[in-house]
Amino acid sequence: MPYRHKILKGLPVSAGIVLGRSKVILPGDFRVAEVAVAAYRIKDEVAALESAVAETVRELRHLRDTAGKKIGGPVAKIFDAQLLIAGDYEFLDEVKKQIREKKRNAGFIYSSFIHTATRPLKRSVDPYLRQMTQDIEAVSRRVLSHLSGYQEISTVRLPSDTILVAESFTPGDILNYRNRKARGFIAGEGGENSHMALIARSFMMPMVVVDVLWRQVPDNCRLILDGTNGVAVVDPTDDEWTEYQRKRKRQGPAAVTRIKRLPEIPPTTVDGVPIHIAANLELPGPVDEILSAQKIPVGLYRTEFLYLENYSFPDEDAQYRFYMRIAEKYSQSQVTLRTFDLGSDKVKPDGFLPHEDNPALGWRGIRLMLDMTSAFKCQIRAMLRASVLGNIRIMLPMISNLTEFEKARKLISQVMLDLRRKHIPFDSDIPIGIMVEVPSAALTAEQFARRVDFMSIGTNDLTQYTISVDRNNTHVASLYNPLHPSVLNLIKMTVDASHKYNIPISICGEVAGDALALPLFIGMGVTQLSMNPARIFDACRLVKKIDSNLVRLLVGSVMSGGTASQVKRRLESYRNTLEKK
Amino acid sequence: MTRKTATIVNKLGMHARPAAQLVSEAVRFEADIFLIKEGLRVNAKSIMGVMMLAAEKGSEVTIEAEGADEEMAVAAVDRIIESGFGEEI
Prior knowledge:
The complex is a heterodimer.
Chain A: E1 6-9, E2 11-14, E3 17-24, H1 42-70, H2 73-76, H3 78-86, H4 89-102, H5 106-122, H6 127-148, E4 162-166, H7 171-179, E5 184-187, H8 195-202, E6 207-209, E7 222-226, E8 231-234, H9 238-248, H10 252-257, E9 276-281, H11 287-293, E10 298-301, H12 304-308, H13 316-329, E11 335-338, H14 365-371, H15 373-385, E12 392-396, H16 402-421, E13 432-436, H17 439-443, H18 445-449, E14 455-457, H19 459-467, H20 485-500, E15 505-507, H21 518-524, E16 528-531, H22 536-543, H23 548-559, H24 564-579
Parallel strand pairs in A: 3-4, 4-5, 5-6, 9-10, 9-16, 10-11, 11-12, 12-13, 13-14, 14-15, 15-16
Antiparallel strand pairs in A: 1-8, 2-6, 3-7, 7-8
Chain B: E1 2-7, H1 16-26, E2 32-37, E3 40-43, H2 47-53, E4 60-66, H3 70-82
Antiparallel strand pairs in B: 1-4, 2-3, 2-4
Helix pairs in contact in B: 1-3
């Protein structure tokens, strides 16, 4: 057996660790051979195509309904596009006409039509049209597999530790493999915010995107998948296997179900100070049951998914239903909804936007929404209507100057006035706050603290802007360090400003869940730390070991460390003292 | 035969989501409905067809219907287009 051990590094898009075996799916070539058909058999060809399409429609309806039950409305809608395509009877009529005229087999004519239709779509600037192409191809694969009698879409249960490896996955694939008990995915393409990634995260199934390297994974070999760090280990050694077994205990679905065992929420420090540990969410999922039962607040609820469904802003009632469901689910805790943060790496809302040379510094976040005022007001209206239970806060992303905040505040007031006039109830005391993720906001934090109801520090983007590094760029990613003194200074400035004006302050970037950093933030006086649900259990346990007076001293010593390595050393030495307890 | 020309008024034009919305509406009618834009003629009940149109803001689309409920069909499709597909104008 040749030595195949290798470690592949890629983009982590869904956290968790799986130790299992690979199953490689090679792209199916759905070009069908051209076969002449005798005149008396044409009628059968046509009938076979009709029945293949009908079967496909039935399958898609079933998938949509089960997705609806398992996750809820927004995910089920992903299948609506495929249903629309499968149900396109005009298209089907054209295909049937060609079958009769050319006297050729259904599979060949059908797949030729599909190729002709998708070729121009693939080059479109509109991201939804490109996504549609994937949906069209997914539908045609089903139709063709029914035609050929070969059951490509299987419902056979997979071996319990299967990790799927393929060039890409459609949302339907993720659902299908999950139903068949697969445990994780390695994909060749797909961004952090692709449909595929969102669904994988909502099911808490680990996934890593490794670009062309996916082809280097042999079929049916031992494989370790680390979706948290973006690593896949092919043919691991026994030592690696044991090491990851240990790591796995701390991550993934197990890490979230452990939350059920937490005795008290919020956890309190050794000296009785409550620290609010909260969750960052983006989609309804199985995790909601656990979090809401334990009354864990949602420090950041990202709403981009609503846009990504269809690459357009959904109507007010659809948004209202979505936010209301969240408010009701988390009725015993506070939920912070963030308005649409689109643009740049996430998605360009307008397929016909001129290319931006510098999208990270461009038309995104609140800037974009302030230009699309009716879409912004529509989202605000929906959020306000859903605030009737009194547990919602609204947060504005990427605020870089006071004018942006003031404009947004004014629009919100206009919406409130309108709702009042129409006697539509909402929480008139609803807190309106901002994400502090742009250095200019952190550097003038006092100006904001006077005017906003709360602030939440988005350390991911704050770090990128401050150090000037794109963490997805492999050449420079190692420079990304949210505990760099420069970033810590900005964090501290913001926290101090919030104290001066006595408003709640939270951190919602990834570093909030970092065990090394938690004591420091508590010492600074951060009242809420919002993180990936997988980290909540460990964070709560850590809080209980901390003495808030001692960590206040820690802040002084860490902040006086001039370099990143001094900071790291001092935090590590504090952690060691905790571990001895 | 009933015919009417509508103008695309929404900012983003008739991209894929409005196309899906229009098709969902068109299939409710018995009449044959076609959309014509700059010589390109597509069946309004076919998502594959309508997606091809990709009409931008300001462009004109002619709606043509033939059949029992052709007047209602044209009116309905016209209303969807002129209302900007419920999007930002």
